[in-house]
């Protein structure tokens, strides 16, 4: 090939490169909508290097969080807003704030006491009382305190320029940082927009106004509150009306009174079912000779988790027996077993039903979030109202707290079954029952077993709390240790609870996967 000959492949590659570059420029114009030529140059510069490439965007630095928010970069806007707010607050405090306000309030309070002591001293001097020396020392001490606080107030007032300069330095630094990262952050969002056109682009006027109002409101409120503390009550105290709280309390109490009166049959039926399971497990664990229960637990641990864990289980059981915790440990296991069994019997079918019904699962998710996040002492209140105190109420409380993981992880496991495997089974003629029992559940079993494990562990965490409403067992010993500061009893009983948890954990999550 001579020098004048042209390789057609090179022309093809150059045409493709030019077409790609032109398409990229058009996409950038569509995305940014303002100053497209500037952003084309900046994006090309940023994209040419794999590392961070500092650029300078004057608008990002000048308008700061407003620019980032208007561009949809809220993950950058909010941190910058916090830092800028801090800077503006420091500037306002240093220039206009009453830095000695708190000290002057303390002086005014002490001066009231000082005036009283002076009158008492004057009366003691007139009466030639033996308390003259006491009042004299008190007055001198208060006067010295006022002098010290006044000097502190003067020192604080003198720090105003330093505080303002510190805020100004923070503001300048954050403005420089915003200028340097603005283009990089926008280029990253542009890359997201290329793959997902639902990502907001451009800088609509409505978003500029919204962002500006939000930022200005936050900054002004913070500046006024910290610069003039106590002057604007609306900023320091939420406006409330006591009547709203009292009316809400009446409504809640009325609802629970109505539920208790009209749901007695339902609550009695639930209590009866819990009693059936609880009494059966107490007969098994408590009434059966200890050597039988210990042997069965050790054998079950050996079959599921191996010889080593079986030896550990034997040692744990010996610890509980030798220290006199055997009966209470078995009572705890019966209570825990009742709550866990009922949670599992309800949770796994519920998870199987919800796994293929997204709307149903979306509807019960807030309920499960409530069950897991609401403090136990709060939902114990309606449980006691409906079921009274005692073991059934403790079982219900434990189920509320520990019953959700098995549902969530059952749904997660079943949704994680590969669709290709299910389609293959269906193509070979599998019906719904065969698909569920031979495909879905075996493949989801690790996740379901993890849910069972978590339910058991969370149920054990409620042992001490449940003892507050009449549940017996190891939690009662821990509660007594807390009440009477009996450190030894509490620690030993706590280790027994720990060993029960370890035994159950190894049995459920044993070596056989």
List the helices and strands and how they pair.
Elements: H1 8-32, H2 36-47, H3 58-63, H4 65-70, H5 74-95, H6 101-127, H7 132-158, H8 160-195, H9 205-227, H10 233-236, H11 242-262, H12 264-287, H13 290-305, H14 307-322, H15 326-355, H16 358-373, H17 376-387, H18 391-402, H19 404-415, H20 419-427, H21 432-461, H22 463-466, H23 474-484, H24 487-508
Helix pairs in contact: 1-2, 5-8, 5-9, 6-7, 12-15, 12-18, 13-14, 13-24, 14-24, 15-18, 15-19, 15-21, 17-18, 18-21, 19-21, 21-24, 23-24
- Structural class comes to mainly alpha
Instruction: Compute the number of helices.
Output: 24
Q: What's the rounded overall pLDDT mean?
A: 82
Low-pLDDT residue spans = none
Which fold name fills CATH's third level, the topology of the largest domain?
A: MetI-like fold
Strand content: under 5%
> Percent of residues in helical segments?
over 70%
* N-to-C SSE string, H for helix and E for strand: HHHHHHHHHHHHHHHHHHHHHHHH
Note the overall shape.
flat
Largest sheet: none
Question: What's the β-strand tally?
Answer: 0
CATH architecture of the largest domain, by name, is Orthogonal Bundle
Total discrete domains: 3
Distance between termini? 67 Å
- Highest-level CATH class of the largest domain: Mainly Alpha
Radius of gyration: 36 Å
Fourth-level CATH superfamily of the largest domain: MetI-like
Membrane topology: Multi-pass membrane protein
Subcellular location: Cell membrane
Protein name: ABC transporter permease subunit
GO molecular function, one term: carnitine transmembrane transporter activity
């Amino acid at each position: 090939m001579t020098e004048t000959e042209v390789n057609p492949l090179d022309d093809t590659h150059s045409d493709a490169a030019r077409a790609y570059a032109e398409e990229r420029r058009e996409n950038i114009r569509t995305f940014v909508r303002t100053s497209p030529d500037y952003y084309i140059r900046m994006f090309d510069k940023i994209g040419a290097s794999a590392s961070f490439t500092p650029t300078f965007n004057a608008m990002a630095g000048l308008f700061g969080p407003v620019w980032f928010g208007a561009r949809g970069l809220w993950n950058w806007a909010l941190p910058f807003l916090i830092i800028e707010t801090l800077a503006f607050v420091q500037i306002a405090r240093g220039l206009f704030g009453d830095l000695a306000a708190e000290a002057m309030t303390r002086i005014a309070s002490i001066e009231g006491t000082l005036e009283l002591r002076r009158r008492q001293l004057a009366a003691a001097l007139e009466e030639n009382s033996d308390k003259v020396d006491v009042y004299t020392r008190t007055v001198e001490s208060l006067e010295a305190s006022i002098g010290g606080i006044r000097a502190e107030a003067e020192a604080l007032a003198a720090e105003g320029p330093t505080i303002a300069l510190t805020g100004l330095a923070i503001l300048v630094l954050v403005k420089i940082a915003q200028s340097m990262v603005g283009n990089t952050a926008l280029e990253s969002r542009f890359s997201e927009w290329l793959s997902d056109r639902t990502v907001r682009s451009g800088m609509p006027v409505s978003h500029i106004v919204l962002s500006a109002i939000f930022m200005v409101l936050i900054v002004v409120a913070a500046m006024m509150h910290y610069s003039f503390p106590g002057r604007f009550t609306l900023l320091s105290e939420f406006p409330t009306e006591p009547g709203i709280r009292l009316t809400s309390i009446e409504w809640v109490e009325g609802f629970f009174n109505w539920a208790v009166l009209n749901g007695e049959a339902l609550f009695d039926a639930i209590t009866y079912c819990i009693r059936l399971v609880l009494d059966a497990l107490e007969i098994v664990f408590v009434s059966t000779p200890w050597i039988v229960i210990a042997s069965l637990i050790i054998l079950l641990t050996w079959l599921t988790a191996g010889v080593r864990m079986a030896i550990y289980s034997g040692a744990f059981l010996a610890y509980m027996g030798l220290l006199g915790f055997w009966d209470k440990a078995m009572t705890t296991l019966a209570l825990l077993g009742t709550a866990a069994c009922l949670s599992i019997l309800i949770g796994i079918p519920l998870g199987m039903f919800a796994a293929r019904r997204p709307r149903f699962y979306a509807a019960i998710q807030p309920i499960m979030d409530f069950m897991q996040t609401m403090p136990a002492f709060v939902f114990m209140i309606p449980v006691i109202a409906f079921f009274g105190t005692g073991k059934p109420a403790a079982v219900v409380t434990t189920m509320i707290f520990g019953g959700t993981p098995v549902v969530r992880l059952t749904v997660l496991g079943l949704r994680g079954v590969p669709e290709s495997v299910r389609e293959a089974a269906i193509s070979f003629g599998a019906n719904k029952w065969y698909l569920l029992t031979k495909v879905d559940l075996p493949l989801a079993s690790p996740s379901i077993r993890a849910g069972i494990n978590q339910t058991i562990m969370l149920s054990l965490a409620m042992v001490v709390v449940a003892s507050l409403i009449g549940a017996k067992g190891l939690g009662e010993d821990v509660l007594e240790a807390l009440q009477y500061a009996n450190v030894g009893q509490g620690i030993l009983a706590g280790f027994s609870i720990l060993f029960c948890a370890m035994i159950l954990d190894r049995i459920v999550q044993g070596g056989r996967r």
